Every structure is written in structure tokens, then in C-alpha cells.
Amino acid sequence: MLSINNLHATVAGNPILKGIDLEVGAGEVHAIMGPNGSGKSTLANVLAGRDGYDVTEGQVIYRDKNLLEFSVEERACEGIFVAFQYPVEIPGVSNLYLLKTALNSVRKHRGLNELTAVEFLKLIKEKIKLVEMKEEFLHRSVNEGFSGGEKKRNEILQLAVLEPALAILDETDSGLDIDALKVVANGVNSLRDAQRAIIVITHYQRLLDYIVPDKVHVLANGRVVKSGDRTLAFELEKHGYAWVAQDPNDAVAPSPGS
Amino acid sequence: MFEAAQQAYVNTYKGIAPDLPGGSVPWVRRVRDSGLSRFREIGFPTPGDEDWKYTNVRPIAKQSFAPALNGHNGIDFTQIEILKDNRLGSCRCVFVNGHFAPRLSNLDQLPRGVAVMSLSDALNHRADELENELGRCVPNKLHGFAALNTAFLADGAYIRVGPDCDLECPIELVYVSTGDGDQPQVSYPRNLAILDSGSRAVIMERYLSLGQGRYLTNAVTEIVARTSAQVDYYKLQEESTDAFHVGGLFVNQHRDSTVTTNNIAIGGAIARTDLHVTLNDVGARSNLNGLYIGMGRQHIDNHTQVDHRAASCTSSEFYKGVLSGRSRAVFHGRVVVHQDAQKTDAQQQNNNLLLSRDAEIDTKPQLEIYADDVKCSHGATIGQLDPNSIFYLQSRGIDETTARGLLTYAFANDVINRFAIESIRNELEHHLTRTLLHGKHVEAQA
């Protein structure tokens, strides 16, 4: 589904990604781990198409198409969803309105008819159960005044509503207590199926106890330095990132993109 | 400056003053005469006047507008959207070019103790009742426009809500201007609302145009809120972008009264509103909400002044502006806390969204505090749409134009959300959906 070849990217002129190679197939869950500054979040933002993240070399093929040619909204409509590490607050736009507008944009792109208000409400009431959110959150402004955990749940709610083909979770576990972590993981697990790929970006092995990956990759200094099955995560937990770093500087390389 | 145009107003006055409503009543003539002499004295404001520094009225002052005459030439008023039905369930007074149009109005369902009538009727038949009220709220040397309004005052609405009357249906004053005629015309709407102690009312003023022609609306509204009276007031100015609008709203509040003014300025080539609130006695509360939306070459100016003259009064001001194209807006928020006004709580906030490089806002908070035990704050912001928010919406599949519209709508809707009356809120939300969410403001960006 996703094929990343020799991807190089800069942020404000600083090289952050320095030759990423990654193959993700449908139905697979991949974990990307790595120390601060290794380029994990930069990778997520490059895939989402964020301004200021400039690809200087390499390519990203998504479902046989050149992803890098797509605008931000085209990527979303084509089935890519990034759950952000720091979701923005949007005062004055209700959660419900955002979800409905987003879903109907995506449906329109896919040649489906837009949902009526009634159909949409029915759908959304099912989906919020997945992330154990109260209905009142639907009527509040997007993420405004939400706790860290509520923001992350809200991201997973959007994920559940938009049903993307490729979901990328950027440090969704950061700032979550163990109960919220389980809720988020349950939400994600319920979306696992043979047609969908999921990339989980995280610092810690803990999340992977709940979202069990098929493959684990370690990112250091802008490259995938080691790949393996889920046992790689246990090894990392035991030995720390210095264990896989090719260069001792990798583990502490400062980066604006992390 | 503008001597010829000024002289034309003076000549017009001499010709028509005796025939204006209440023209035979000595005090009415005195009021008008004093308005005219003040106008001759101070003339039209110039950019040299501090309060008009950012609003040049030359396009208005250089020409002489003829008084709009009563009667209209076969205009089909059913084409006016707002008159087709009555969603507010209001008691409605309609004015065409400033003249009361009984046929288009609906004053049937007024409860006892409430009087709503045209000012011309009131001047002709109830002049005694108005003698000690009319003009009392208007500051003496405000500006030439207000003075001209006083000189030519003839029609508008007179609203009297008796003690402890709770008027449930809103009173709606609709000013329609046709903008036709051989020469540009001026109308002088003049409204007076007196709310006796313990009474409650919702008042909404609308200003709209039928067609495009150039004209001037020069309006003055006075509101007196006596002890514990509560007023929820709305002004929706959505005249054509060829029209000029200069309006004054003057509010006198007494003990424990609450007046909320909601001032929405969307229309006009040059649109200026002066809003003065005077808190005369303890416990009075004033909320001032405002929203201005400019596009093209519109110029929208809101000057507000709150005078805290008594102790323990509260004022809370919240104005927002959205500007695109080459439009320009002015916000001046003056708050004066007089010496005896201890325990004053005065807050002011003005936030502006500039959607284009060429749009401009001049915002000026001005606090003058002569008491020592007060709580006052003010803030002003000017900004653009947040690129992170736009990206976030795009990343959910929403195209950039829609994302910008949505964020602009949200910014403006923040003001509308404060409106107490649901039907008015709904109408304005619908309006914003049309203009900001899907409208030209968004397209005009780039």
C-alpha cells in the first residue's frame, strides 16, 4: 500500500530525513520507534503534506500513485489520516460540524453521496462509543479546552469516522494515562482489518502492548536503522536506543522536526 | 470646507422646517433650530478632528443630499426578503426612505402599557409627552451629522414601555431606502425608546437598501432605561455598498438597568456608528457586542464610548471585525470612569481578522480613569487565519477554500453566539453562512 524509497526531507533547510525506506502492506500494523529528533514526526508531517517540510530526494508511492504530488486534502480524501501529536484547537467550529464536513468531503471525493444530518448523527453516535466519549464533546469547539487525553481520543474519533486506508498515529500515546491509553488502543484495534494499514509512531514500547504491531522499525538520525518483529520493541525497552544507533551522536541529534 | 453643501442644507431647512411634523409646537421648533445652528457652527467633521482621524467624510460632505420625500414610485415591496414573513414574530414598523409606511407595518399585537408609533404621529399628537425626553441622550457637541439629524428630525419610531411591562415580542424597526430619484437623497431616521422602571423589551433596527443607488442615511436613536429596566437592542446595518450610513446610538441607563447593544455593520460604502452609553446610577450594566464585516472598498467605523458616572456599574464590550479586499475599518473604544464611579468593572476586547494584504484596521482602545478602586481591562488583536488550523482542516479532507471559510465564519460567529434571542441568532448565522462560509470574502482572498 505504501512504499517509501530513499526519502530525504528538510525542515527550514535542515536535513531531517536522510534516506528512509519503508514498505507497508494492506492489513499490516507497523510501529516506528526512535529517540527524540530521529525524524519520526517529520515523517508523519511529510506524509500528511504539511507546508515547511520539503522533500529533497526519494519518492513515496501510495496505492500505485505518487503521493508527493497530492495536496493535503487530496491525501486525506485518498485515504490517508494522520492523528497528530498536537492537535490544534479551533474555537467556534464544533466537533460535529468538522466531522460532518470532513466526512462529506471525503465521500464526495470517492463518488459517494453526502450523508444527511440524520444519517450522520446515527453514524457518529456509534463511533463515539468506540472512544468512550460523551456526546457533549460533539457540540464543543474542536479541541478547545480539551485535556491532552481528550484531544487524542478526539483524533481517534475522527479516524474512526473517516475510515482511512492508511492511518498514521503520531505519538498518540504521549500524555495519556493508562486508562486513556487503553481506550485509544481499543479504538485503533477495532479499526484493524485486512484492507487497512496502520503506522504507529511512538517513543515507548508501552503502547505496543495494546496495539500489537506486525513489524517494528527503529529510526535514528533520519534513517531506518533496524527492522524486526514485535520482539524488537522489547529489546529496545531493555537496552535503550543507544543499542541500535550506528553513531553515538544519533541518539542525541537535535532536530526541530521531532 | 464644504461651504456650498452646508449652505444647501441650511436653505433646505428654511424651506421645509415649518411643514415638518410638530412644526407648530414651539419646543419642537426650538430643538430643530438648535440642531441647525449647531450644524452651522461645527459643520461636517474633518480628518483634523481626533474622532474622525481615520474616517474622511469628504465623499459625503462635498455633495448636498436632498431630503428624501414621502411616497415611492410603484416599488414592489414584496421583493424585500425580510418583509415576506415575520420569523421574529415581531411588532414591526417599516419606514421607506425614512418615512413611516403604515401599510407595511404591523402594530396590532401590542400589550397594554406599551406604545409604539411613528415619531411624526407622536410629534403631532403627543408632543407634551416627548418634550422632556427627545434629544436628552445626545451629547451636545457631538458632530455635524447628529446636529443635522436633530434639525431635520421628523420621523422614526417612538417606543414607550410602561412600568413593569414585559414586552415579549421584539419591536422591529425596518428602514428601507430606495436610493432612487434624480438627486442623491438623505433620510433622517430618529428613534426614541423609553423603558420605564422594571420593564423589558427587545428592539431591533434594520437598515437595508432596495437596489443600488447612492444615498445617505443619517440616523439617531435614543434609549432611556429607567430603574431595573432591561433592553436587548440590535442594529443590523446591511445597506448597499453605494450607500452612506452615519448613525448615532445614545443610551442613558439608570439604577440597576441592563442594556445590551448588539451592533452589526455589514453594508455601506462609508458606515459610521457612534455609540454612547452613560451609566448614571449604581448597579447599571451595559453589554456592548459588535461585529463588522467589510469587503471591497467599504469603510466601516465604530466609535463607542462608555461613561461610568456612578459607582458599581459594569460594562463589557466585545467587538470583532472581519476585513477582506481593500476594505478598512476603525474601532475606537473609549471608556471614561468618572471620579465617583468606584467599584467600576469595565472590560473591552476588540479582535480583528484581516483576510487580505490590502485590508486595514485602525483600532484604538482609550481608557480614562479618574476613580481609584476600579477593575478595568482592554485588549485589541489583529491577525490572519492560523495556518496550522487551515492545515489541520485540510488534513481531514476539507479543501483550503472551505477551510478558510469555516475559520472565518467561526471567528465572526463568536459574536453572534452572544445574542440572547434565538431567532435573531439564527438569522445572522444564516447570513454569515452565506457571506463568510460560502461567500465572496473567501474567494477574494488569495
Jot down its keywords.
heterodimer, A: 258 residues, alpha/beta, Rossmann fold, 6-stranded mixed beta sheet, disordered C terminus, B: 446 residues, 11-stranded mixed beta sheet, 10-stranded mixed beta sheet, 11 helices, globular
Describe the protein.
The complex is a heterodimer of chains A (258) and B (446). Chain A has 258 residues and is α/β, with parallel strands linked by helices. Chain A has a single domain, classed as P-loop containing nucleotide triphosphate hydrolases (Rossmann fold), CATH 3.40.50.300. Chain A contains 9 helices and 12 strands. Chain A has helices at 40-48, 72-77, 95-109, 117-130, 136-139, 148-162, 178-190, 206-210, 231-239; strands at 2-11, 14-24, 29-33, 53-62, 65-66, 80-83, 90-94, 141-142, 166-170, 197-202, 215-220, 223-228. Helices cover 24% and strands 37% of the residues of chain B. In chain B, the strands form 2 sheets. In chain B, strands 1, 4, 5, 7, 8, 10, 12, 14, 16, 18 and 20 form an 11-stranded mixed sheet that branches. Chains A and B meet through helix 2, strand 7 and helix 3 of A and helix 8 and helix 9 of B.
